[in-house]
């Protein structure tokens, strides 16, 4: 079968990729949805700084040699097997830039922000 | 809920705790949180090869093709790519509405907090590698039921699958342009305006024979065969579409100043087809006998040459007398290793000149026959000539 991968007519959005070492886990044992990751700043020189919980991560802006397309599955059916592209996809966005953060491998824990 | 609560004051407090100097930072901050669907796994990443990004931005589509038993490929309008999953040890988050420092400087926001929701995350993505379109299946589908002409009994009594362009697009792992080009290469034609068919070889030779006989009786030059007259003279024998199709297959169409359509007949292709007709009747032939019969069988004025038979027939120079037999490259396996296995089981040692027509089509973009031979064969010297044999024992 043909699985179509089209841009659906409108202009393609430009998204950003953030690459982190390690895994993202929720602090509470619930899902990640809605929880904060952290604050992303840039220095005046353009260096990205990500504050996640009690960690400060310094990164760099990388222009991707090979951009990514973000494919969003239509129809909502679950993926039958991990390796296979099944179903109908729409190209939702392009990613040409990534923020690459390197840090000592530690679990990065989302946190509840302090109230001022 | 949690996200909209985060205020500038809280951000500043965090900066203070982190001992970062706000004066060294750009004024705006992105507060990153996970969107409601972030964990759902509905998004995945596809790494784009050069050119594909521009195609998507121009509004063109990409299509993923493959049946359950086939490895999926991605097709643009004119290219085909293998898809492979690449895993990374890092976590990739994809975030809409997140700006780079340049974008922030170019357009200083009136607010200094940007709330960005992470749309999804992944530790793998799809990698693409340009590959040869998988076209052997196309020929196989059409060869299952070749067209034998309107007088044939076959079409009326049996039902075989018939394929429109759309059918082929959904079944063949290749881009549309590659499919249409290959249909032309194999001289397929549309019957009843819709279905792609290949002509059965004997029917094709019959049609060709009508044309070459007419050329002879009219004493036309091979370079100036008029379409109109062919249709008038032969239209009572065969359908006009078939007459025109055989002229298109075996000639080059042109229009003169008066608007008349002519064909420049392709001598090499005609000689080659007649050779196939002769060779298909036996396992092998005495080479010199074959060459004599072949020259006599082609239209008067045409000259046969062995190099017209590249990829169609193979000469055995080691036998006494020398022989020739039919070996069609399109009958051989499509996969590289299987192709070489097949060739080495037919003949143990090949010269580069002999093997090239049988592996030329395996070359990827910018790959040479030499590179293929280095990879799949082992070379040695035989009587002062470089020959290639299999890297592994062939049963």
UniProtKB/TrEMBL annotation, chain A:
Alphabetic keyword roster: Cell cycle, DNA replication, DNA-binding, Nucleus
Protein localization: Nucleus
A Gene Ontology molecular function term of the record: DNA binding
InterPro entries: Ctf8
Any single GO BP term: mitotic sister chromatid cohesion
GO cellular component terms attached to this protein's record: Ctf18 RFC-like complex
Family: Belongs to the CTF8 family.
Protein known as: CTF8 protein
Native source species: Pachyramphus minor
Name of the encoding gene: Chtf8
From TrEMBL, chain B:
Family statement: Belongs to the DCC1 family.
Pfam families from the UniProt entry: Dcc1
GO cellular component terms attached to this protein's record: chromatin; chromosome, centromeric region; Ctf18 RFC-like complex
Keywords annotated in UniProt: DNA replication
Protein name as it appears in the record: Sister chromatid cohesion protein DCC1
One GO BP annotation of this record: maintenance of mitotic sister chromatid cohesion
Top-level taxonomic group: Eukaryota
Keyword Disulfide bond tagged: no
């Amino acid at each position: 079968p043909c699985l179509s991968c089209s841009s659906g007519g409108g202009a393609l959005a430009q998204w950003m990729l953030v690459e982190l070492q390690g895994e993202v886990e929720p602090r509470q044992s619930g899902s990640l949805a809605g929880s904060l990751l952290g604050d992303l700043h840039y220095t005046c020189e353009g260096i990205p700084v990500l504050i996640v919980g009690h960690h400060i991560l310094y990164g760099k802006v990388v222009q991707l040699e090979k951009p990514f397309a973000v494919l969003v599955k239509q129809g909502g059916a679950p993926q039958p097997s991990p390796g296979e592209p099944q179903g109908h996809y729409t190209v939702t966005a392009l990613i040409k830039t990534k923020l690459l953060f390197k840090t000592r491998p530690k679990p990065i824990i989302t946190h509840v922000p302090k109230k001022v | 809920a949690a996200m909209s609560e985060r205020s500038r004051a809280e951000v500043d407090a965090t900066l203070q705790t982190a001992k970062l100097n706000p004066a060294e930072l750009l004024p705006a901050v992105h507060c990153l949180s996970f969107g409601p669907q972030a964990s759902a796994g509905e998004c995945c990443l596809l790494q784009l090869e050069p050119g594909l990004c521009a195609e998507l931005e121009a509004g063109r589509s990409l299509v993923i093709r493959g049946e359950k038993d086939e490895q999926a490929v991605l097709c643009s309008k004119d290219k085909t790519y293998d898809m492979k999953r690449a895993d990374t040890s890092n976590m990739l988050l994809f975030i809409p509405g997140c700006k780079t420092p340049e974008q922030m400087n170019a357009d200083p926001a009136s607010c200094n907090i940007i709330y960005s929701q992470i749309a999804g995350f992944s530790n793998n993505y799809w990698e693409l590698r340009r590959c040869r379109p998988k076209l052997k299946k196309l020929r196989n589908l059409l060869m299952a039921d070749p067209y034998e002409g309107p007088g044939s009994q076959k079409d009326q009594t049996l039902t075989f699958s018939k394929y429109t362009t759309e059918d082929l697009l959904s079944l063949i792992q290749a881009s549309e342009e590659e499919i249409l080009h290959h249909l032309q290469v194999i001289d397929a034609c549309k019957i009843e305006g819709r279905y792609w068919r290949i002509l059965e070889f004997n029917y094709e030779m019959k049609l060709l024979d009508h044309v070459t006989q007419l050329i002879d009786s009219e004493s036309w030059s091979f370079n100036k065969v008029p379409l109109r007259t062919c249709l008038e003279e032969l239209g009572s024998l065969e359908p006009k579409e078939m007459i025109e199709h055989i002229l298109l297959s075996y000639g080059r169409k042109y229009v003169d100043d008066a608007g008349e359509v002519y064909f420049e007949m392709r001598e090499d292709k005609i000689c080659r087809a007649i050779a196939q007709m002769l060779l298909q009747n036996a396992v092998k032939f005495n080479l010199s006998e074959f060459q004599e019969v072949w020259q006599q069988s082609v239209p008067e004025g045409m000259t046969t040459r062995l190099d017209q038979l590249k990829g169609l027939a193979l000469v055995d120079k080691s036998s006494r007398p020398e022989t020739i037999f039919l070996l069609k490259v399109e009958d051989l396996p499509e996969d590289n290793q299987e192709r070489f296995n097949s060739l080495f089981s037919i003949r143990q040692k090949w010269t580069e000149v002999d093997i090239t027509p049988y592996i030329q089509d395996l070359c990827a973009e910018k790959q040479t026959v030499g590179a293929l031979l280095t990879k799949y064969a082992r070379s040695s010297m035989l009587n002062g000539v470089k020959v290639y044999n299999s890297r592994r024992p062939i049963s």
